[in-house]
Amino acid sequence: MAENTKPFPKIEYVLFDMDGLMIDSEKIYTDVTNYRYIDEILGKYGKEMTWDIKAGCMGKPERQAGEYLLSFFPDIDLTLEDYLAQRNQLQDERWPTVPLLPGVKKLVHHLKAHDIPIAIATGSRRRNYQMKTAHLQAVFGCFGGKVICGDDAAHSIKGKPAPDIFIIAAKELLSRDVGSVGELITEKQKEERRMGLVFEDGLPGMQAGKRAGMSVVWVPDYNLLNVDYSGDERADQILKTLEDFVPEHWGLPPYPLHDKHI
């Protein structure tokens, strides 16, 4: 997928996805669902979640992702409720060990040190967010509770690729005048959205960020680059890892010289 070649706008606030972007949770999702463990969910039926299927699950709320996954296996005797119950039990055992991905700690600490407004917009359930991040507070504590989760009752959030979660995070958590979901917005509000930068790893999340009118840095698993995609949205920048992000390209303060090669 070709990225945007236009000059990058000056950024004033940053929104992070979490799963697969900040933490290596996608490996756990895949391992639990597939046959890597002989008694795991799809493995018991001799089935596998391929990357074409996984691409459509990433970033979606739990139930929506589960329904999408199971739609590819109509011949197996597994209900959505049974699938979610089995998956959640297996995942809960692994969340306390999930590691940060490269470049995350450095970037979050850098933005925090320079008072750049930051928030998390994740399709993950709130209870899962807490389990995934409890042991990683050196990073996630930097957000000061500015986190929107897919099941937050205070908001009626359509899952990615709908733009809802990023618009709500910018408006409710960072007090940016970006307008409301589903309503006409002014030119000033459009400009305010263009000042936002979304970090995403999922294809639906990249689409959601662009549909929100924000810039998107896409950090996909290399497998996603081979997934057929015919949508109109294009990431503004594609990186292999957050370690490759250069803040000053986006009008953000540069890393200190001694951090350039960390």
TrEMBL record:
User: Mind telling me which InterPro entries this protein's record contains?
Assistant: HAD-like_sf, HAD_sf, PGP-like_dom2
Tell me the domain of life. Answer: Eukaryota
* Entry GO MF terms: phosphatase activity
Against PANTHER family, the record matches this protein to: 2-DEOXYGLUCOSE-6-PHOSPHATE PHOSPHATASE 2 (PTHR18901), PSEUDOURIDINE-5'-PHOSPHATASE (PTHR18901:SF38)
User: What is the protein named?
Assistant: HAD-like protein
The record lists the organism as: Leucocoprinus leucothites
